[in-house]
Amino acid sequence: MKWHFKVAAFKLLSSMPGGRALYGFSQQHITKSLVPSRARLGQKFGVAAQYYHWLTQHQMAERLLKGVHLDFGSGWHPTIPLFLYSMGVEKQYLFDVVPVLDARLLQQTLGALLPMLCEPGFPHRDLVRRSPPPFQHGSRDQYLKALGLSYHAPYFEVFPSLAGQVDVVTSTQVLLHVPPSVMASCFRQICQSLKPGGLFLATIHLRDILAGSFQTGLVKYQQLKYSPQTWERWINSPLMSFNRLKAPDYRAFLEQAGFELLHFEVEPGTAEELKELDQVPIAECFRRYTREDLAAKHLFFVARKR
């Protein structure tokens, strides 16, 4: 779908009564974007393995395997918490702003996930210690509780009760949806929830999510043309919120919240993409960034509570 058509569609649905429910229906039955396909689950497995292998390489894996884990922004499919359960993690909190995970989606996720974990050719088979049981009856919360998982959406009232109790927080492709006006507060709350020396690991898309993963040409940088006022009034929407933050912004928020950066890996744009970027009229608000900052595509960081 063309970039401007996507913008218009999300804006329209956001303004309609029942628009969120209609969007969810279309995701489930038309675009199939909520279907837990092997490709989607495999990507999440890969991220969980990335977190684990970084911790292992730095002799910190026990913090995750034997500690308390918080997944900030678990989303429609709790793939990473279920995979971490299969690795032996005993206690986990799953946080979402709104309650998107229901019994049906949980059952769908398990239906796709369990066969993959058992396959001899599963690429992360060496990490699997046990499999979650099938979800056959009972409520979502009863099932999750039996696995040591606790789902909270919204989570705002729960954060204070976790002060100093969490060993590892992860957030996978969620922070790009957090408005800049509340990012500092989110990072402070995450930091406060961690034990001294606790770790915060995250992956974040820095590219334009409205353009899609495979968009080519100048449209990849369409979002850089607009002032904050124009972006919020005419383009950004509750159903597809994108904060347009760049890697230096996340670094600043982390340091302000009291984190020490242990790893900060930015995937750069290619030489061809930098040339394309040079043809785009950049809004004043983005001129403080380098070309490399604006063309960067992905961020993976590990931060430690001081």
Structure characteristics:
306 residues; alpha/beta; Rossmann fold; globular; 7-stranded mixed sheet
Folded structure, characterized:
The protein has 306 residues and is of the alpha/beta class. The protein has one domain: Rossmann fold (3-Layer(aba) Sandwich). The protein is 41% helix and 16% strand. The protein contains twelve helices and seven strands. The chain has helices spanning 3-15, 19-29, 38-57, 61-65, 79-87, 103-118, 140-146, 180-193, 228-235, 247-257, 271-277, 291-295, and strands at residues 68-72, 91-95, 149-152, 166-172, 194-205, 259-267, 298-305. It has a seven-stranded mixed sheet, sandwiched between helices. The radius of gyration is 20 Å and the shape is globular.
CATH topology: Rossmann fold
**Order of secondary-structure elements:** HHHHEHEHHEEHEHHEHHE
Quote the beta fraction: 15-25%
Find the structural class using helix and strand composition.
Answer: alpha/beta
CATH-defined superfamily? Vaccinia Virus protein VP39
Q: Total strand count, please?
A: 7
Largest sheet: 7 strands, mixed
Regions with little confidence, pLDDT below 50 for 5+ residues: none
- The rough form would be described as globular
